[in-house]
Design goal:
single chain; 186 residues; Nucleotidyltransferase, domain 5; 5-stranded mixed beta sheet; 45% helix; globular
């Protein structure tokens, strides 16, 4: 039986549009990580490095992804949405082991887990989860750019850039926007 270190991390807590995405990655104990470049939290890697790591994870390591979309985020709030996605990702992974969450996340499980401040900088499993979640969310936003190209989701992935704010002012929100995040912008 393989023992796992299960890392869980989220992306997309702060954007004005799109889902919050959580990944759970099960790194086998004593697994020799021989990735394409130095491992780091997804925010510290280039887009190309994240893509290379994503391919590595998909080919080598068990993982799962869960997302919660804006309509639910607006109904239950972003923290609860991230926790819901984290719980779903762990259930979908369907493996047990030492569960490590990046700080701020909570899961609904009977299994013990640790919440670690800057966990994506301290544990490989959490860093890998941050990468696969980021690549997955970015791809969702790029695909949605085709439907809602006036907002520039392919450029900013839903974050509140000047371009995005100007498009919101000109066109109003689209179905991908989190209405609860826009209240203070009008």
């Amino acid at each position: 039986m393989t023992n796992y270190e299960i890392g869980i991390d989220e992306v997309g807590r702060g954007p004005l549009a799109g889902p919050v995405v959580v990944a759970a990655v099960a790194l086998p104990t004593n697994f020799q990580l021989e990735g394409p470049c130095k491992l780091a939290d997804s925010k510290k890697l280039t887009e190309n490095q994240r893509e290379l790591w994503s391919r590595y994870i998909i080919s080598q390591i068990p993982f799962s992804i869960a997302r919660v979309y804006p309509i639910t985020i607006d109904r239950i709030n972003i923290s609860q949405a991230a926790n819901l996605a984290a719980t779903r990702a762990l259930k979908r992974l369907n493996l047990s082991g030492k569960i490590l969450l990046d700080a701020g996340l909570k899961i609904n499980t009977n299994q013990p887990y640790q919440s670690i401040i800057k966990g994506d900088e301290k544990y490989d499993a959490i860093a890998l989860a941050s990468i696969i979640a980021k690549v997955h969310r970015d791809n969702i936003m790029i695909k949605n750019h085709r439907l809602y190209n006036r907002y520039g989701f392919n450029r900013h992935k839903g974050y509140g850039t000047q371009f995005h704010l100007a498009a919101l002012k000109k066109f109003g929100p689209c179905p991908l926007h989190r209405r609860s995040f826009l209240i203070n912008l009008t």
